[in-house]
Peptide ABC transporter permease (Paracraurococcus ruber), 606 residues
Amino acid sequence: MRRLWLPGGLVLLVVLVALAAPLLGLPDPIRQDVARRLAGPMPGSPLGRDEFGRDVLSRLVWGARASLTVAFASAAIACVVGTLLGLLGGWFRGLGEFFAVRSMDVLLCFPPVLLALLVVTLLGPGSGTLILVLAALYLPGFVRVTWAEVLSARSHDYVEAVRALGAPTHRILLRTVLPNIAGPVLVQLSLAVASAVVLESGLSFLGLGVVPPEPSWGLMIRGARGTMAQAPLLLLWPCLALSLTILAMNLLCDALRDAADPRTAPAAPPRWVDRLLPGLLPPPRADAVLSMQGLTIEIVTPRGTIRPVEDVSLSVRAGETLAVVGESGSGKSLTALAAMGLLPPAARPVAGAAWFQGRDLLRLEEAEHRRLRGSAIAMVFQDPMSSLNPVHRIGDQVAEAIRAHQPLSARAARARAVDLLRRTGIADPDRRARAFPHELSGGMRQRVMIAMAIANRPALLIADEPTTALDVTVQAQILDLLAGLQRETGMALVFITHNLGVVAEIADRVTVLYAGQVVEEGTVAEVFGAPLHPYTAALLAAVPEGDGMAAGIPGTVPPPQDLPPGCRFAPRCPHAAPACDAPQLLAERAGRAVRCTRADELALAA
Ligand SMILES: Nc1ncnc2c1ncn2[C@@H]1O[C@H](COP(=O)(O)OP(=O)(O)OP(=O)(O)O)[C@@H](O)[C@H]1O
């Protein structure tokens, strides 16, 4: 909301000044005083007099009423009618679409001035006619934008989900589709208002709009043009008013669009102190490919700043697999995205370092990060369908990943792409390379994603729940594939998952996250054999064995905006005691760490 203050205030000021024109005690805007023709600024007329000796300030303020009424009214009519037609055409398709959308194409065929001439001939000039002409001119834009957005929105899962709930059509359109297409419609509105102010000026200038001697900014520009050599300032004032109003309108619509979309939080500013004083950063861990030390991430949300990741340290060596585990919301993905330099705009690392090949990934320039991504560091995401481009053949997508970092010809890159597809276990890779993503199964698509990730032989591969969307058999094949590729290339692998069965199968070491903090760390054998933290023990107990029922962990991970004081796991911990405070991560033995005040006591009791 804070982002609306400045542009909203500016637009409100312009509108209020225009509305308050009769109360401001300004001279009559149409009273002529030929003796003072083209007079410069003087007492009582701070902006001087025009070619008929009329007061320029008064005409500017009264002209704003005419210009803004025409602009706002025409844009509002076009927006409401156009959005409605676009919504109905895009949703119902068929005949509704034909009449709503195709009829607009006919309207688009008329040149604007011809349309204005036609309507003015029929109805006579004036503000009302101008509103009608401009509304007709802007209508097709709104219909087309809304129609295209509805077509795209209706294929999204969230729309399917409300349809599956049996919601009535008008509710789906108004409550689900409209808020999601509001951004582009608001942008179109800002363009329409801005362009209507300009067109009003243009059409009034041609004698097709506001009728003289009524003031409007367009008529002022027309008048000033004839006396440009003697009184250039006369042209400046209406042009300045026009430009500032358009700028304020555009800013307001951009701010409205951002306010309507909760995903567009303001970007967090970088911390220059971290760049200026690199000596304060924690040093890297010896022989680690990735060494993350004390990572803390802050996110600016409408309800305040949160810390979903706090003081997270982890490291992985060449050829090693580190599993990062924890329930949903524990901060696994944000930690990985920080290393990739792909944090959402509202999030920023505020402390710590992530050392990779001698560089701190948290403080790299975007250009440097882009050079590393896909070459030295690669990432595989959970949902291969949304990560692959649906309109390009998979062979071309793999080849593109290679050519983004290697100077190969298209033919050579394609041959390498086919080879990579073969290495990831895709049968008949030559034929498959010509397929589109929707023609492949989920497992095949994930293999393609892995082929793209390893295309440039990365030193570090981060896999964020790469098997969660796959069935158990395919999951096992993908795990085998990753393990095989790792043996072959010696890359370090960070495997993010909430599936402890997978961890046991693939990982050498494990880092357990809870509510944004590392609660336990060590080799898989040690941690799984004798967990030191009650959360790790509860996670392990929650893994179903054989036909037995799993013992679920009561409660849920606390959200970052509602963290309990002291130990974050205490409200769910069966061993919580009054002595439990805000524990630090303590190294128990070499390579093993735990964040629990009672860890020693509980280990002895076990
Ligand atoms: N852009 C954002 N704005 C506000 N909060 C966010 C944002 N991104 C993540 N969060 C919050 O940060 C916390 C950690 O999120 P993260 O996605 O890292 O969890 P996760 O452990 O990867 O969960 P999952 O296994 O479900 O992917 C969550 O509480 C989440 O709601």
